[in-house]
């Protein structure tokens, strides 16, 4: 099954994609929006995109693309983040990696390499490529990326051991599932008044449904107008979820509610 994810080979997205596809079926791009758009147009069977990091928070490009394109979510993959400092030798001038990886290792870098320049690149794997090409460049990536000309000078350099990234497996909208322990929704009320957000969330609390994530993103329609991304710990197959959504849809009748689907979680170490 052809699966599209962030590349190049060796990214954390690649590790997550391996949970749903063989390497021979995985293709790479450098655009989260491009992945979700390709799935919506059925140009690829699956997409794997990051949506949240436990330290840096939401991946806003993913959230905005979910609001723009009609797709479904069929699985959640959680990948603990293990960062290593990779270089050809002990001395270097630049540390290249994805902006989030640089932020996640800021304390280690400030303490041990305060004079190194930090260079944000498209992915951790792109930083590893830079380090292989130039001995003046070090990279931050998974320890498995060491080898060849690169040595792991230090491992587990992330600030927090609890660091993990959440990925969603995206499929065409027709494959939306009602089965699963979690459900993702997008709500655009297209209106604003005191207590609106509370009214949108209350139907879940009243039915003992835990909200695992609530994010707001600008709608792009006008200043102060928002789209809400909501994850709940319940499946669409459950009557309590259907009842809560019925209330939410009434509240958002001037806008829309998109059910991305229900799914289960897998952890990939």
What does this 3D model show about the protein?
It is a single chain. The chain is of the alpha/beta class. It is built from 8 helices and 16 strands. The strands form 3 sheets. Strands 1, 2, 3, 4, 5, 11 and 16 form a 7-stranded mixed sheet that branches. A 5-stranded mixed sheet has the order 8-7-9-6-10. A hairpin with a 3-residue loop joins strand 3 and strand 4. The chain is elongated and about 60 Å long. The protein starts with a strand and ends with a strand. The mean pLDDT is 94.
Q: In brief, what are we looking at here?
A:
With 269 residues, the chain is of the alpha/beta class. Helices cover 26% and strands 35% of the residues.
Number of strands: 16
Helix proportion: 25-40%
Structural class: alpha/beta
Order of helices and strands: EHEHEEHEEEHHEHEEEEHEEHEE
Radius of gyration: 20 Å
Ends apart, CA distance between termini: 22 Å
Low-pLDDT runs of 5+ residues are none
Looking at the chains present, what oligomeric state does this protein adopt? single chain
Percentage of residues in DSSP E strands: 25-35%
Principal-axis shape equals elongated
Task: State the helix count.
Answer: 8
Would you tell me the overall average pLDDT? Answer: 94
Q: What kind of sheet is the major sheet? A: 7 strands, mixed
Characteristic key phrases:
269 residues; alpha/beta; seven-stranded mixed β-sheet; five-stranded mixed β-sheet; 8 helices; elongated
């Amino acid at each position: 099954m052809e699966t599209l994810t962030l590349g190049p080979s060796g990214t954390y997205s690649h590790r997550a994609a391996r949970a749903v596809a063989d390497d021979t079926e995985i293709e790479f791009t450098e655009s989260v929006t491009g992945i979700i758009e390709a799935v919506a147009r059925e140009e690829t069977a699956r997409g794997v995109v990051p949506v949240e990091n436990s330290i840096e928070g939401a991946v806003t490009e993913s959230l905005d693309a979910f609001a723009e394109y009609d797709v479904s979510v069929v699985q959640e993959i959680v990948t603990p983040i293990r960062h290593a400092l990779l270089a050809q030798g002990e001395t270097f001038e630049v540390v290249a990696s994805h902006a989030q990886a640089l932020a996640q290792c800021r304390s280690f870098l400030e303490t041990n390499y305060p004079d190194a320049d930090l260079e944000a690149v498209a992915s951790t794997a792109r930083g590893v490529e830079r380090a292989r090409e130039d001995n003046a460049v070090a990279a931050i990536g998974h320890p498995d990326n060491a080898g060849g000309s690169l040595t792991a000078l230090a491992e587990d350099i992330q600030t927090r051991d609890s660091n993990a990234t959440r990925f969603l497996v995206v499929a065409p909208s027709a494959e939306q599932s009602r089965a699963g322990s979690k459900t993702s929704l997008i709500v655009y009320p297209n209106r604003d008044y005191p207590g609106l957000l509370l009214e949108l969330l209350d139907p879940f609390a009243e039915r003992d449904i835990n909200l695992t994530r609530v994010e707001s993103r600008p709608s792009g329609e006008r200043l102060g107008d928002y789209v809400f991304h909501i994850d709940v710990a319940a499946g669409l197959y459950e009557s309590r979820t259907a009842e809560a959504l019925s209330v939410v849809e009434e509240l958002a009748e001037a806008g829309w509610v998109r059910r991305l689907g229900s799914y289960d979680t897998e952890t990939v170490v």
